[in-house]
Design brief:
Its EC number is 2.1.1.211. Its main location: cytoplasm. It is found in: Cytoplasm. It comes from Meira miltonrushii. The protein is of the alpha+beta class. The protein has helices at residues 13-25, 126-129, 145-153, 158-178, 193-213, 221-242, 262-269, 283-291, 304-309, 335-341, 372-379, 384-392, 400-418; strands at residues 2-10, 34-44, 49-50, 53-65, 74-82, 89-96, 114-119, 133-141, 252-256, 274-278, 297-299, 321-326, 347-351, 424-427, 436-440. The chain folds into 2 domains: 2-178, Alpha-D-Glucose-1,6-Bisphosphate, Chain A, domain 4; 193-440, Rossmann fold (3-Layer(aba) Sandwich). The chain is built from 13 helices and 15 strands. The chain binds S-adenosylmethionine. Residues 257-260, 277-280, 301-302, 326-331 line the site of S-adenosylmethionine (SAM).
Length: 444
């Protein structure tokens, strides 16, 4: 074992072992090229030791790369050792390779046989240990002596930089544990993370390069293509939960304020029936129609008050439609009510962006108080706590603009409930800060 990096640790061994657990469960935190790890086995009290340290836990994980066509997955044995007093620990991470060859190690993993985090007390500074200032080290077992030499002598080497990065991440995670850090946003409450990742990669492989190459709008293709691929992934998985009898297919969908039509194109290419509506056609529309005859994009100015007042049925959406509002501006606040007025509406997804109120003005309020009594009258006493918690869920208020956004999301929550939809929200895994999706899949 060769020491590669060292730092003081301003945390307890308990925080260290929790941080190690997080590193094992979530290797994607240390590298953007890693998708996730699946835990294949997890044993406690294994009969193995390193010196005076006994193996407390052995996990085998399968690390999956974000781009499986470029790199392969890697199985790895992760072992956590502790001394009897619980003051020292070592966590080893050892790839399982077909042969003892550095070329077998995928790109996203350091080219080493094994690596380890060591938490121990420094004898020279024993006074410090009393205040939980404990050195921890990052070790490697190199394939070759020469490699070890280079790694140690050159702090600029990739290996040394990785060591520092991992040690830094481990320290930050342990610091978070010590200070009671709670995840700010819970993801994956409506659709499963694994299902999302798998479908997202399939859709990306099927569509991304064509869409990037043929982009004809003046906007940034990188932003739109990957964001809409994420939204479509979420919608398709959501539909599987709502329409199990029809293999995840709604009777019809309407993308309200569909803009460039990309979402409609992707859903049509994936075999779903529906259309998009916007007040003006976009350059991309003809291109999408030429590529896929099922792409149905319509120029129409939606008049929500007329549609919802019941005085006209001319522009009601088809019976059973599922409504989608993605950053639909003036239509966002009306969407729950439009869904309510659509005959047998099968649900809605509403992703707010600009803060348009029902009267078409942009809201600048930074607070939106909600009366619990009114919510109780809507959802009933038994659902009050759950609904109030769901109203509270949202982005963190850090800046003034965020607090205005939070107030707006509370306003949309209120309208959603008033229109008779059970409130569910998901923080979408998309590269946008306006990523909160309001889901209506059940009536109150
Ligand atoms: C911010 S853009 C979003 C477009 C698209 N959904 C997206 O995410 O790329 C909002 C769209 O809503 C459309 N829109 C706003 N009010 C509308 C109305 N009353 N009828 C039809 N479309 C409307 C606008 O023309 C615009 O294209």
């Amino acid at each position: 074992w060769i020491p590669l990096a060292q730092s003081t640790a301003n945390h307890s061994i308990h925080a260290w072992s929790k941080a190690i657990e997080q590193l094992i469960y979530h290797p994607e935190q240390s590298s953007s090229t890693i998708l996730r790890a699946d835990i294949l086995s997890d044993e406690e009290g294994v009969d193995s030791s390193i010196g005076h340290l006994r193996c407390k836990r052995r996990l085998v994980r399968n690390i999956l790369p974000r781009r499986p066509n470029l790199d392969k997955n890697l199985e790895q044995v992760c072992e956590v050792y502790m001394n009897r007093q619980g003051s020292e620990g070592i966590a080893t991470l050892t790839p399982i390779l077909p042969s003892d060859n550095a070329d077998e190690v995928p790109y996203y993993h350091p080219k080493v046989r094994s690596l380890a985090f060591h938490f121990c007390k420094d004898n020279d500074e024993s006074a410090i240990t009393r205040f939980y200032i404990v050195p921890s080290r990052f070790y490697i077992v190199p394939f070759e002596e020469e490699q070890a030499f280079n790694a140690i002598t050159s702090p600029q080497s990739r290996l040394s930089r990785t060591a520092l990065l991992l040690l830094d991440l481990q320290s930050r995670l342990a610091f978070g544990v010590e200070n009671g850090y709670k995840k700010r946003v819970e993801h994956d409450l409506i659709v499963d993370r694994k299902d999302y990742q798998e479908l997202y990669m399939q859709l990306r492989d099927r569509h991304a390069s064509f869409l990037m190459e043929t982009w004809c709008e003046s906007t940034d293709p990188g932003k739109h293509v990957f964001e809409d691929l994420g939204i479509v992934t979420f919608i398709i998985l959501l539909w599987r939960t709502i329409f199990p009898q029809t293999n995840g297919r709604p009777p019809n969908f309407v993308d309200v304020g569909c803009g460039n039509g990309l979402l409609v194109y992707l859903l049509a290419k994936e075999g779903f029936t529906g259309f998009g509506v916007d007040v003006q056609a976009r350059k991309s529309w003809d291109q999408y129609r030429n590529c896929c005859s099922e792409v149905d994009l319509r120029v129409e100015s939606i008049d929500p008050p007329a549609m919802c007042s019941g005085t006209t049925s001319s522009n009601l959406f088809p019976e059973g439609s599922f409504l989608i509002g993605n950053h639909a501006d003036e239509l966002t606040s009306w969407l729950p009510l439009m869904a309510h007025c659509t005959p047998n509406c099968s649900g809605l997804v509403n992703i707010p962006c600009c803060r348009f109120d029902l009267d078409g003005t942009i809201s600048s309020r930074s607070k939106y108080p909600i009366d619990e009594k009114e919510i109780e009258a809507i959802v009933g006493k038994q659902n009050l706590t759950k609904t109030m918690q769901e109203i509270q869920r949202g982005p963190f208020a850090e800046a003034d603009t965020t607090s205005r956004n939070i107030a707006y999301l509370r306003y949309i929550s209120h309208l959603h409930l008033q229109a008779g939809w059970q409130l569910e929200k998901e923080a979408l895994r998309i590269p946008s800060t306006k990523n909160w999706a309001f889901v209506g899949r059940k009536r109150i």
